[in-house]
Write a structure and sequence with these properties.
- By secondary structure, the chain is mainly alpha-helical.
- It folds into two domains: 220 residues, no CATH class; 103 residues, no CATH class.
- 49% of the residues lie in helices and 4% in strands.
- The longest helix is centred in the last third of the chain and has 21 residues.
- The protein is globular.
- The C terminus is likely disordered.
Length: 342
């Protein structure tokens, strides 16, 4: 499908950041998101579910209360906007087909809850908890818990009963997820079995709530892209602890004999993007936060006058392990910061 042309495509990053979200005028129609939504609807149809969540473009992913629909972030509508998102956030959430489908299935779980008012059922409340529970700005997950499915990053099912259901529904809906085997012996299996029974009961039934409202559509958002990203970046701001010196000194060398070796700071800068992506992938931490940690490590290496000595591939491996260990300690240690509930 030919892509629609926009005047802002040719703007520099600085100029694009001055544009208002409302001026982008992007839509789901005519983009790859149409195929993603079509696939989601096919998956629902195969399960006999009549609800087809409507979708619109907004500033972020969400499914509003009492609206069986899905808001999709604007940056996914165009390669130029995805490029800007990558620059500003170091990641593009939902930017690949598998990631987009994973999030859509999650948001479809919210839409199902809203459309069929599932949170009113006693069994739903017994398994997932009260939907009326205060939605936290932060949450503290237990990665070892088997009471919850694992779908989106950061053990998101543990943040709120509604998210627990949405994550469970997403696992149940995904084709060939083999959830009965994957979660055999887990308490979370009871939730999956309940969703399976509940969807069989709902199959073929029209949802009581058919609200087609579009909350915070892009055309109503007057903030500039610069303001949007300033707020979004602040959300992930993190002051890393100054506890790296001993570990960095063990990995790199301050011996005057190695003054001709590359500096540890330049070594980290050269490999930071790949290492950051790997650690984010395996820890679930946001890349923007990891980048702040790497900045701090680079600064400490300079102050300690450390040099990168030895086989480069071994140093890359060891530094990746060090950053992973520090990240996990920061996330789950006694003095760790709380996790943001999105």
């Amino acid at each position: 499908m030919p892509q629609r042309k926009f005047a802002w495509e040719k703007l520099s990053d600085a100029q694009l950041l001055e544009q208002r979200l409302s001026s982008l005028r992007v839509t789901v129609e005519g983009t790859w998101l149409e195929d993603c939504l079509g696939t989601l609807h096919e998956e629902l149809e195969e399960r006999g579910i009549r609800l087809r969540p409507h979708a619109w473009i907004s500033s972020e992913w969400f499914s509003p209360a009492n609206v069986p629909g899905i808001a999709i972030p604007f940056y996914l509508t165009h390669p130029r906007l995805m490029k800007l998102e990558k620059k500003m956030m170091l990641d593009v959430e939902g930017g690949t087909w598998p990631q987009c489908m994973a999030i859509l299935r999650h948001e479809a779980g919210h839409a199902m809850q809203h459309g069929y008012q599932l949170q009113r059922r006693r069994r739903w409340q017994q398994l997932f908890g009260p939907s009326s529970k205060h939605y936290p700005r932060y949450y503290r997950p237990n990665p070892a818990s088997r009471n919850y499915v694992q779908h989106l990053r950061l053990w998101y099912a543990q943040s709120h009963p509604d998210e627990d259901f949405a994550e469970t529904f997403a696992v149940w809906l995904r084709p060939r997820s083999n959830w009965r085997t994957r979660y055999a012996g887990w308490p979370a299996l009871k939730k999956l079995e309940y969703v399976d029974e509940l969807m069989a009961e709902i199959a073929g039934k029209r949802p009581p709530l058919m609200n087609r409202e579009r909350v915070d559509p892009l055309h109503s958002l007057s903030q500039t892209l610069g303001e949007h990203y300033k707020k979004k970046q602040a959300f992930y701001a993190f002051n890393p602890p100054k506890t790296y010196d001993r570990d960095l000194s063990r990995l790199f060398s301050a011996d005057p004999r190695h003054l001709r070796s590359p500096t540890a700071a330049s070594f980290i800068r050269r490999h930071r993007a790949r290492i950051r992506e790997l650690v984010a992938q395996w820890t679930g931490e946001n890349q923007l936060t990891l980048d702040a940690v790497l900045d701090d490590m680079i600064s400490r290496c300079r102050e300690l006058n450390l040099r990168a000595v030895g086989p480069e591939h071994k140093l890359v491996t060891n530094f990746t392990i060090l950053l992973t260990a520090k990240t996990m300690h920061a996330l789950f240690g006694p003095s760790r910061r709380k996790w943001i509930a999105l």
